[in-house]
Amino acid sequence: MRASGRAADEMRPIEMIPGFSKHAEGSCLVKFGDTHVLVTATFEDRGPPWLRDSGKGWITAEYGMLPRATHDRTGREAARGKQTGRTQEIQRLIGRSLRAIADLSALGERQIRVDCDVLQADGGTRTASISGAYVALHQCAHWMYNEGWLERKPLSDSVAAVSCGLVDGQPALDLDYVEDSGASTDANFVLTGQGGIVEIQSTAEEDPFTEEEFLRLLRLARIGCDTIRQAQDTAIRSYAG
Amino acid sequence: MRASGRAADEMRPIEMIPGFSKHAEGSCLVKFGDTHVLVTATFEDRGPPWLRDSGKGWITAEYGMLPRATHDRTGREAARGKQTGRTQEIQRLIGRSLRAIADLSALGERQIRVDCDVLQADGGTRTASISGAYVALHQCAHWMYNEGWLERKPLSDSVAAVSCGLVDGQPALDLDYVEDSGASTDANFVLTGQGGIVEIQSTAEEDPFTEEEFLRLLRLARIGCDTIRQAQDTAIRSYAG
Amino acid sequence: MRASGRAADEMRPIEMIPGFSKHAEGSCLVKFGDTHVLVTATFEDRGPPWLRDSGKGWITAEYGMLPRATHDRTGREAARGKQTGRTQEIQRLIGRSLRAIADLSALGERQIRVDCDVLQADGGTRTASISGAYVALHQCAHWMYNEGWLERKPLSDSVAAVSCGLVDGQPALDLDYVEDSGASTDANFVLTGQGGIVEIQSTAEEDPFTEEEFLRLLRLARIGCDTIRQAQDTAIRSYAG
Amino acid sequence: MRASGRAADEMRPIEMIPGFSKHAEGSCLVKFGDTHVLVTATFEDRGPPWLRDSGKGWITAEYGMLPRATHDRTGREAARGKQTGRTQEIQRLIGRSLRAIADLSALGERQIRVDCDVLQADGGTRTASISGAYVALHQCAHWMYNEGWLERKPLSDSVAAVSCGLVDGQPALDLDYVEDSGASTDANFVLTGQGGIVEIQSTAEEDPFTEEEFLRLLRLARIGCDTIRQAQDTAIRSYAG
Amino acid sequence: MRASGRAADEMRPIEMIPGFSKHAEGSCLVKFGDTHVLVTATFEDRGPPWLRDSGKGWITAEYGMLPRATHDRTGREAARGKQTGRTQEIQRLIGRSLRAIADLSALGERQIRVDCDVLQADGGTRTASISGAYVALHQCAHWMYNEGWLERKPLSDSVAAVSCGLVDGQPALDLDYVEDSGASTDANFVLTGQGGIVEIQSTAEEDPFTEEEFLRLLRLARIGCDTIRQAQDTAIRSYAG
Amino acid sequence: MRASGRAADEMRPIEMIPGFSKHAEGSCLVKFGDTHVLVTATFEDRGPPWLRDSGKGWITAEYGMLPRATHDRTGREAARGKQTGRTQEIQRLIGRSLRAIADLSALGERQIRVDCDVLQADGGTRTASISGAYVALHQCAHWMYNEGWLERKPLSDSVAAVSCGLVDGQPALDLDYVEDSGASTDANFVLTGQGGIVEIQSTAEEDPFTEEEFLRLLRLARIGCDTIRQAQDTAIRSYAG
């Protein structure tokens, strides 16, 4: 039994509110327990410079955290004049994860910019971001298709992400902040709805981990991503019928 | 009659949700119609360097806008590596407005950092920020007093802000984005609950304005700030009894 | 009687030297007592990118202060790598004030860049800047017209600015540094030669101010701007006949 | 058979020259084929601020690439004024990998700064960096111990890293630049000499990968890291007997 | 005969106005023809960190140019967020030149900051800066001695600088902007009042120059620096008797 | 006799390895004793913007130092976000020196970027950089000519650089770090193979120097540059026959 009362393979309550933003072509407020991320997807009718005349589009992501999303206040990146390495690492991960399930040729030379802004943080902000970003991206693609920008739908699969870790030597799913801080190994998995692996990032915080331990974390991740996918499906059905 | 159907002296619906944030000592989600700002107030047990040994504290503010809070996406300030002049102007205004109703000696050598982050923008983000910031600041001061950090309460009055303008030659209260874009004069007023004036910023966007026009805007601002003050009072009573 | 011996409604001695700069199309060294600002206006035969194909031009301003313009040395902004919020606020104000009296269509797709550099500061640098900038701008427009760049004159009115404040509870005109530091309310007014109001910025430094106090400051500003306008007229006649 | 003529599980020729730098307490020029990285380890007799009074030390890493280390010239980060997200991601990875095999308490409140500078790049610069950094770190720790800064040796294990990937659908070890560019999945593994896993980063560049494919890459990584460890041992024996 | 009508060994008219600034401990407005530089010297009662406990002081310089000091407007360094290489090169040169004639021990652990700001440029801004900076520095040292900060006078010699060059193959003294732009060799000399050489910077803009040509430029520099020294002496006598 | 055992007019051992880099069109690892600099020359088939339609090309240089090239570690410029004034001064010097012996019209509208990166520093890094850069530049020009990019060879002369100084009152050639730190005068000379002078930078670190002393340093520089030119010739013959 974990401190939170959850079972080892139990996700925190998931909530996904698509269309949360008045202005964006796609958006989703995603909650994994007390971790709340507002994701928007913005359509742009031109691609990045390096894809000019390629016929292909692009999906990119940015990530930010409100200063008091965290337990102690974190200095505002805009005020310090640069993004931390952590921020850049996360936004690169989100972008890669979304592109992995997209057919960039189907977009034509257009770009979708996904913004993930953490309103409140309690562990797992990057995995909640990816999971919510899929919904915002889907809504944006849905809008593009309905508005006649696309000839075919650009998403061939869904994508979800979850963190797992070894806490007090035990594998646990969807770590909250307290668990994450105390975990000896921390792993983030990005999986598609069809079961493919998009990204694995597994890090020993103290002692190295074994292959067996790693595989147990992967098992948990599959369970968690199934749960997330169901929440994603429900969110998508609410506007896409 | 305005495009929105509002009367000239009619505010948009106001909503204030104190304690919106799990972590912050004070917080408030404030809505002026479709303008939504999340304000947090963070307590720090040390003042800024320039007040060392003065016995006085400080209240400072930062302001930001999520990239897709606006109709078109605005580049992320953290990514561009600096805050715009507009952002700096607004956060300086918010800080001054809050300090105007505070007894900085009552804080001792401590600091309260107020963060105003616009989740969705539809005109009047700076005035909504100030109005919500008062609630977050009050809640933070309330917490400090209850926790024994303060010997006396540091806020001697309340503060609210509203924008007014000349739209199609007619004075109007609490401009939304469309009205603001078309206004020939735009004025922001910061008033205290007891009727004092803290700040006036009135700008001719095209033709200069007259003293009479200005005074009519000030009349509207008094009406608007009364309405805001009632919403603030309700919000405060919800946690302070 | 004020510490300086001036009456409440008395400006400091004003001096305006147009054509101070050898290179600029328009320039003016303006002195309000010990506050000295060198203003240049630079003609550019292309407008800013966002006005392309609009047929309209632009007037923009930058502001700076020599490091030892002030009583204590202020760090050089170029060395620190960014402009302060105060600098940005001031240069935005100067630009708005000048555009308010200009017919931007008469410029065609061209730009005038106004640079205000404070050589010596003793309070009121932003109001001296605006007042001198009008002369430099006028001289630049005069040059453009004479050189055949313009079909009609782009300035329809003149503009001047002055600071007022409550010092020891008494309204006073054109505050010097010592008065400004001790004022409980500080207000900057930008007025046109025909009496229109372009901008009001009025701030309570400590206690809020009343509407009556504010109106007394506005009265003083009208007196001050009349005096400035006469100095501007004299300066302009010296080269424009 | 791969384009380079190597077998699937064959590393490029490895060369490690410890003590390459005249000034540094530890250093190693490491070559994985045409990828050449100069690593130095610098001893500092004080730890980072956040470990003050903890009794513990720190190991941190920075990473850079000479502009023409790459096939096409890459702009110099110092000239552009900031490090890319890729650079920050890599230097965070190197630091974590080294700390995973170190006893930070044994360092006392001291810091070792590891600099990895790529002189020539042909794929796998981050894994060559980690592998060479272990030698430079070891030499620095050896020096510290001999000089009497340490009471006990701070490294409890060795660490090595290698990249693997799916090239034309086939698993391959230690990808060079051409292979890396064409790989559908790219994985970096950081393993200890005793077989523990410190970090896994596995990314689908196009299609998702399967668990089985991933495990085959892990097998190759174990083979590669064994080879690297032997080169490390040889290098260390050259100065440590 | 030069385009300006000057003889080969003739300086432009020199003007030096000490005490030009109201606030600074030392100041000088220096004019070499149409090149005008405002120099201030600021006293600080603490040295730079790297001289702590050395008993020695420091003299440092900064250099800037108003945007429209030049024929075409130059972008403001503060707005671009960094100083150019040229600016940094010049301010390092000014600082070295002043330190070369100062007894830093006589200053005690104090610093003098010299700011050279070019109000109008017509060639030779760095040499005018150094020459005027000597007067401002002298006035500041004079003030420090009179105020009792110093036990002995810190300046043992005077320093002046001038540019020379090969224009149309002929050596010429004190180049103006037009001459400087067309010179095939450009040399700056910093000489002391007693005839010692502090700095030589001689650059071939196109073809290399010969030793003989160089020596002829040095002869001219000696003549020019004599003239400058007389202007410096006159300026100094005006306040130091 | 110097501390190093060298005679006053004796260079340190010089080594030049052309073609050191696998990717660059020209490259040279140059060693002046323990000072090691890796120079690459990169061909770009377009010139800088300011030479568009001029028919001329450009040669530019950048300079950097690995953090632990120095005895104590120097902070990485990329991490600090800007290049120091020293770095900018050096890279401007290198660029000027190379352009002085090149016929920029012969390049056409193309650019050669020279990167000088100091792997290990022991005094004289800028003069070693220039001397090695000549070889890398030559090799790049050789490549361009052979590949058919050029109609005629663009280098009309060779260029070399060396530092001299007064150490303990005695002139000495090619100062190492210890000598350089203790020299009372430090001079860098850039000379062409035909004996012309491209650049002189001579600085009094403490007391001013005399013309006679200066001329003795120039004599030494001629001796040193002869030696360097022989090493350059040998290096060039190794690939150019």
From TrEMBL, chains A, B, C, D, E, F:
Signal peptide: none annotated. SUPFAM superfamilies: Ribonuclease PH domain 2-like (SSF55666), Ribosomal protein S5 domain 2-like (SSF54211). It is an enzyme of class 2 (transferase). Pfam families: RNase_PH, RNase_PH_C. Residues 10-139, 158-222 form the Exoribonuclease phosphorolytic domain. It catalyses: tRNA(n+1) + phosphate = tRNA(n) + a ribonucleoside 5'-diphosphate. GO terms for biological process: rRNA 3'-end processing; rRNA catabolic process; tRNA processing. PROSITE patterns: RIBONUCLEASE_PH (PS01277). Keywords: Nucleotidyltransferase, RNA-binding, rRNA processing, Transferase, tRNA processing, tRNA-binding. GO terms for molecular function: 3'-5'-RNA exonuclease activity; tRNA binding; tRNA nucleotidyltransferase activity. The keyword RNA-binding applies. Phosphate binds at R86, G124, T125, R126. Its EC number is 2.7.7.56. Gene3D superfamilies: GHMP Kinase, N-terminal domain. Phosphorolytic 3'-5' exoribonuclease that plays an important role in tRNA 3'-end maturation. Removes nucleotide residues following the 3'-CCA terminus of tRNAs; can also add nucleotides to the ends of RNA molecules by using nucleoside diphosphates as substrates, but this may not be physiologically important. Probably plays a role in initiation of 16S rRNA degradation (leading to ribosome degradation) during starvation. Homohexameric ring arranged as a trimer of dimers. Belongs to the RNase PH family. NCBIfam families: RNasePH. This is Ribonuclease PH. It comes from Eilatimonas milleporae.
